[in-house]
Amino acid sequence: MKHAIVWRDEHIAVRPLVLEDAPLLASWLSDPGVLEYYEGRDRPYDLGRVKTHFYRDDEAAKRRCLVGYDGTAIGYIQYALLDAAELEEYGYAADARIAGMDLFIGEPEYWGRGIGTALVAGMAGRLLTEGPEAVTVDPHAENARAIRCYGKAGFPRLRVLPRHELHEGTWHDCALIERRPTGV
Ligand SMILES: CC(C)(COP(=O)(O)OP(=O)(O)OC[C@H]1O[C@@H](n2cnc3c(N)ncnc32)[C@H](O)[C@@H]1OP(=O)(O)O)[C@@H](O)C(=O)NCCC(=O)NCCS
Fold first, then answer.
1. For residues 53-83, b (16+ Cβ closer than 10 Å) or e, as one string?
2. Per DSSP, what are the bridge partners of residue 7?
3. Do 103 and 80 touch, CB atoms closer than 8 A?
4. CB of 153 closer than 6 angstroms to any ligand 1 atom
5. 37 touches ligand 1 (CB under 6 Å)
6. Is the distance from the beta carbon of residue 116 to the nearest atom of ligand 1 less than 6 Å?
């Protein structure tokens, strides 16, 4: 099946999610190794939950995409402009135009190979051409691999968001990480 490409490089291709991707998302998001860093091991997804969460219409502004590497589906990335509540929560001015990204590589054997760095750098570059002042990600403060990856991709750490996300029953600090057009 041919899909419109959102961004690609020599190996990585990002394209909009389609319904046929739902079983893959369910398999990634029921893997405790992935859930440990994304959503939580106490919140595994089945197909029904994937369809409710990733395919709902009420968040039409959120762009949800599949990530492929050399033709193999390996992960997920979504992006959207922050809404008013998120801008306030993250400490931005009410009229700021800031894009947020959220992602995971669902195949752990692809971790630590530089793919995340190329993906977030490439996607941030692509999103910044659409006019936001900055692109942000907010990993858990203790997700050292993610923070290292985003740092390599030109996202310096901006500030800590204390007790920002309820994960596996505990409130976790997150790191607000931001890339601006001049950040590379
Ligand atoms: C976070 C994620 C997107 C990063 O992608 P990736 O392809 O693994 O990242 P890269 O290989 O480009 O970079 C990872 C860097 O972290 C380093 N690293 C790995 N584990 C680490 C750890 N425990 N502590 C510190 N650094 C670590 C790697 O060595 C590498 O740095 P280097 O190139 O200087 O050696 C991916 O690992 C992932 O999806 N993980 C699970 C879900 C998740 O955490 N999602 C992010 C939510 S915000």
1. ebeeeeeeeebbbbbbbeeebbbbbebbbbe
2. 14
3. no
4. no
5. yes
6. yes
Residue 51 reports pLDDT greater than 60: yes
- Which H helix or E strand runs over 158? strand 157-167
Pocket test for ligand 1, best of 107, 109, 149, 176 (most atoms within 8 A of CB): 149
How many Å lie between the centroid of ligand 1 and the Cα of residue 1? 30
- Helix 144-152 and helix 115-128, axial crossing angle in degrees, nearest 10: 50
Of residues 129, 153, 118, the one with CA closest to residue 139: 153
- For the sheet with 7-8, list strands across it: 7-8, 12-16, 63-69, 72-81, 98-105, 134-137, 170-179, 157-167
> For residues 99 and 90, what is the distance between their CA atoms, to the nearest angstrom?
12
| Contact partners, residue 151, CB within 8 Å, separation at least 6 | 157, 177
134-165 pLDDT, tens digit each: 999 999 999 999 999 999 999 988 899 999 99
Question: What domains can you pick out in the chain, each with its CATH number?
Answer: 7-179 (3.40.630.30)
